[in-house]
């Protein structure tokens, strides 16, 4: 969809005269394109842009002031003078419904104003780009300086969102959370989603209606969206990365994390992965350390022994010993495995949670950036020149990956058999989010910035090359509904996909439908729908296109269709790339029942082999005794001996084949290979040998007894 059409479809009808008049600006450019374009036309166009910018900025400032007054009016009605004085109980249900309707209206206005800012900013970028391309004159750099003086597009709405969350929370019943019975069995589940920049504010407004924003400390001026920085450690071979992406049992992740702008207090964290079938949950443990001691801790010259001795005076003994043990284990792992800083992640997090219950926890991370630390720290535990000034313009583009989407993480802790809240189900099934199971910032950052060191790529990487935005259900036309039905969606593992036509494509594991082409042909259409986040995505795509082309030949995916019997390895005959193609790690879940099924299959083969060998031994023992003839004489039964001598080797062959197949499948399961687990040649060969043995016995029997039934 071209941006002009996208703008018309997305504007708020009541505000349509306050949006950028994109069509008029575009028409002016087309009507006076070179060679008719002159300095007078240029001056006129600049004046038109200036008037549009004033119009948009003035309206945005006006609406924001209206939002503040609207919130203050509702706050006054609730008699909410401070964050601590929230004792009002609304007994009148009619009055409560009226206030709730006002809050819903405010949330809707915030979403509309956020969309207004985003669409107009994108409109200015698009028309400037079209101007420079059409006229041959360069206007964008100069006008961007003027645009920065009226930064309506930089409004984050954090203040009004926090205030709105508090007002919603006041309308909910207050009091301690209900305590579960001692016999309650809880099920913990964590899911992750990508959220497009256009949908971030709407997601926030949906969540705060049911879950308040969690502001730690609740002091005046508290930041609802704290900066979170983490430095991940690994060795030069990225062993921890490969263990995590392959989901090895007890795979480690070690990171140093700090909050806000200062890193005076650093949290040393260790995450241990456990598979679901083990019955254990993945564990995250951490302890704090002053920054001045971090380098010494990494070198092994500083320990927590003295600090823990002081803690024992004020903290429980078990807690002190657990902290000391954790610090010792992490330090040993850093030294023994040669771990060093390899990657930093930075993001702005908004947390949603009831203060007195952990049943539902949601976090939304925006402004996510992954920064290379490997070979850039100069012996320090982190790069000193990197602060919190997103988008980090001072860094080399090769050292940073600005993730184009927000990350929504939903953590549920519900009783066994209970269903999640309806509003959670509606949110995750809506057009606002894109499910990405098992997404990891650490894995994605390493795969993007350290691709020369990795052997496996995450399965979601091709998913980055398509627009994850979807039309709302009430706006989908028949054409858009048909198109959305072909988008990539998750299907059960084990389904197969094929590629057709002359274009080389690959379809990854559970992805089906629309073909992913990393060449991104939309780059050639300068008027396609694109907002600022998409513009950043385009920039990132151009920077990382060479990396992604290591998966491709001529900018498209390989022609071989996906086979689930082998890793998804892209065509090795990539003549246009100097780097070797790499396999994509498919998320294959392995449970104990898979191993038990392999053992049951082996036992069935063993049962057949034992049965055949028993029959063969019986026939072999029967042969020398002979059989009695009609005159009382006894002759040896040659056919029984031959039958025994042929059946016993066949049974041994069955046993050897069963044992070989058992160990072969066991290795496939442990490597999490997607299969196939069946063999075609083995059963055919064994069946053929068995048929040959029976045929030989039949021939010998007829030679001994003749073909006359009277002699049998």
Plain-language structure description:
- This protein has helices at 3-10, 22-31, 39-77, 93-135, 140-148, 158-170, 200-208, 239-245, 291-299, 305-311, 317-336, 422-428, 441-449, 478-484, 532-548, 592-625, 638-670, 681-705; strands at 186-195, 227-234, 252-259, 265-272, 283-290, 340-353, 360-372, 400-402, 406-415, 433-435, 457-458, 489-490, 511-512, 552-553, 556-557, 584-585, 627-628, 634-635.
- Strands 1, 2, 3, 4, 5, 6, 7, 8, 9 and 10 form a ten-stranded antiparallel β-sheet that branches. Strands 11-16 form a two-stranded parallel sheet. Strands 12-13 form a two-stranded antiparallel ribbon.
- The protein is α+β, with helices and mostly antiparallel strands and 712 residues long.
- The N and C termini lie far apart (86 Å).
- It is 43% helix and 14% strand.
- The radius of gyration is 34 Å and the shape is elongated.
- The model is unreliable at 80-90 and 477-578 (pLDDT under 50).
- The protein folds into four domains: 3-170; 182-455, VTC, catalytic tunnel domain (mRNA Triphosphatase Cet1, Chain A, Alpha-Beta Barrel), CATH 3.20.100.30; 485-587, no CATH class; 592-711, no CATH class.
- The chain contains 18 helices and 18 strands.
- Helix 10 (305-311) runs antiparallel to helix 11 (317-336).
């Amino acid at each position: 969809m071209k941006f002009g059409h996208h703008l018309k479809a997305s504007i708020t009808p009541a505000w349509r005269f306050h949006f950028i008049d994109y069509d008029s600006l575009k028409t002016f450019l087309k009507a006076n394109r070179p060679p008719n374009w002159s300095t007078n036309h240029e001056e006129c166009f600049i004046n038109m842009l200036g008037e549009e910018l004033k119009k948009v900025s003035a309206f945005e400032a006006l609406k924001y002031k209206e939002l503040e007054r609207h919130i203050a009016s509702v706050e006054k009605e609730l008699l909410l003078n401070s964050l601590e004085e929230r004792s009002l109980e609304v007994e009148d249900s009619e009055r409560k419904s009226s206030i709730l309707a006002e809050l819903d209206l405010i949330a809707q206005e915030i979403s509309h104003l956020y969309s207004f800012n985003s669409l107009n900013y994108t409109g200015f970028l698009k028309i400037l780009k079209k101007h420079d391309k059409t006229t041959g004159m360069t206007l964008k750099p100069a006008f961007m300086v003027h645009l920065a003086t009226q930064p309506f597009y930089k409004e984050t709405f954090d203040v009004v969102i926090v205030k709105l969350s508090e007002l919603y929370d006041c309308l909910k019943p207050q009091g301690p959370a209900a305590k579960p019975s001692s016999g309650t069995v809880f099920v913990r589940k964590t899911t992750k989603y990508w959220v497009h920049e256009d949908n971030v504010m709407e997601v926030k407004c949906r969540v705060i209606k049911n879950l308040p924003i969690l502001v730690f400390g609740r002091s005046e001026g508290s930041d609802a969206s704290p900066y979170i920085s983490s430095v991940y450690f690994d060795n030069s071979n990225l062993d921890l990365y490969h263990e995590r992406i392959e989901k090895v049992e007890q795979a480690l992740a070690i990171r140093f994390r700090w909050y806000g702008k200062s890193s005076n207090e650093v949290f040393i964290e260790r995450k241990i992965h456990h598979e679901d079938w083990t019955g254990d949950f993945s564990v995250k443990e951490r302890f704090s350390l002053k920054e001045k001691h971090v380098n010494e801790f990494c070198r092994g010259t500083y320990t927590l022994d003295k600090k823990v001795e002081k803690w024992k005076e004020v903290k429980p003994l078990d807690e002190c010993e657990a902290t000391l043990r954790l610090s010792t284990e992490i330090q040993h792992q850093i030294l023994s495995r040669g771990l060093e800083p390899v990657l930093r992640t930075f993001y702005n997090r908004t947390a949603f949670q009831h203060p007195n219950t952990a049943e539902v926890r949601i976090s939304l991370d925006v402004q996510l950036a992954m920064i290379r630390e490997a070979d850039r720290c100069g012996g320090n535990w982190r790069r000193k020149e990197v602060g919190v000034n997103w988008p980090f313009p001072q860094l080399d583009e090769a050292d940073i990956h600005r993730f184009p989407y927000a990350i929504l993480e939903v953590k549920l802790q519900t009783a066994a058999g209970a269903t999640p809240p309806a509003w959670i189900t509606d949110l995750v099934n809506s057009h606002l989010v894109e499910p990405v199971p098992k997404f990891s910032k650490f894995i994605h950052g390493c795969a993007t910035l350290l691709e020369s060191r990795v052997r496996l790529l995450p399965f979601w990487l091709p998913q980055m090359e398509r627009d994850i935005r979807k039309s709302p259900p009430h706006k989908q036309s028949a054409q858009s509904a048909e198109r959305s039905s072909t988008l990539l969606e998750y299907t059960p593992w084990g389904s197969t996909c094929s590629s057709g036509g002359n274009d080389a494509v690959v379809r990854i594991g559970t992805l089906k439908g629309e073909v992913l082409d990393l060449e991104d042909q939309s780059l050639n259409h300068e008027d396609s729908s694109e907002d600022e986040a998409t513009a950043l995505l385009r920039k990132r795509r151009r920077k990382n296109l060479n990396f992604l082309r290591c998966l491709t030949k001529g900018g498209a995916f390989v022609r071989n269709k996906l086979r689930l019997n082998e890793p998804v390895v892209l065509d090795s005959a990539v003549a246009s790339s100097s780097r070797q193609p790499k396999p994509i790690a498919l998320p294959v879940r392995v449970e104990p029942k898979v191993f038990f099924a392999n053992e049951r299959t082996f036992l069935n083969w063993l049962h057949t082999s034992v049965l055949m060998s028993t029959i063969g031994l019986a026939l072999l023992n029967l042969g020398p005794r002979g059989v009695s003839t009609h005159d009382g004489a006894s002759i040896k039964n040659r056919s029984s001996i031959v039958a025994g001598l042929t059946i016993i080797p066949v049974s041994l062959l069955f046993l050897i084949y069963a044992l070989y197949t058992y160990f072969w499948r066991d290795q496939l399961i442990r490597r999490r290979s997607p299969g196939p687990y069946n063999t075609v040649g083995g059963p055919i060969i064994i069946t053929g040998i068995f048929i040959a043995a029976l045929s030989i016995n039949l021939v010998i029997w007829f030679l001994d007894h003749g073909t006359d039934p009277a002699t049998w």
